[in-house]
Design goal:
Length: about 180
């Protein structure tokens, strides 16, 4: 496998010697930073919200969320222990203040978190779900009825947060359910 392919594969399943390089790219690539902040803006987080990021990576969007959610709680979920460590290093203060929890695991870990959320989002993750409909059912199961659940990807494709979670929409017309 060529080096470029090995690096790109890190974004789906970060591991091995290149995992830190993937984390650096996720945290510093301008288009990725913009996409993370854009998605957090779509959330319209309120100070007391309970927020979940699926695939939190090195914590770029989590940082923006904890800055907005001052009296609620933010949870970051990622299947890579290295990404959890990078997010932990970036957000130590929020963890110490008990405003942020980091969970190592994938969608299968959602029921064990044991709470529902006002906002659930992902950035650069939905394209890696092998069964998009099952993924959205798992996400909706931990959502409050009036919650928001936007997602974004680097391919300018997002998925509606309506009752038909597999309906593709262009990012220019992205809606999030209230």
């Amino acid at each position: 496998m060529a080096l470029r392919q090995r690096i790109v594969a890190q974004f789906k399943q970060p591991h091995g010697a290149l995992v830190h390089l993937a984390g650096i790219i996720m945290a510093n690539r301008p288009s990725n930073r913009v996409r993370n902040l854009w998605t957090v803006d779509l959330l319209d987080c309120q100070s007391t919200d309970r927020v979940l990021e699926i695939g939190c990576g090195p914590g770029i969007a989590l940082k923006a969320c904890v800055e907005r959610v001052r009296h609620g709680h933010v949870t970051g979920l990622d299947h890579s222990s290295t990404m959890i460590d990078l997010a932990r290093n970036r957000l130590q203060a929020a963890i110490a203040e008990d405003r942020l929890t980091l969970v190592h695991g994938g969608l299968e870990a959602l029921p064990a978190i044991g709470q529902t959320f006002d906002r659930v989002y992902s950035v650069n993750v939905a394209q890696f779900f092998s069964d998009l409909e099952a993924a959205y059912r798992a996400i909706i199961a931990v959502m409050n009825d009036d919650g928001r659940r936007p997602t974004s990807s680097p391919y300018d494709v997002a998925f509606s947060a309506t009752s038909k979670p597999t309906t593709p929409m262009s990012s220019g017309s992205l809606r999030s359910a209230k």
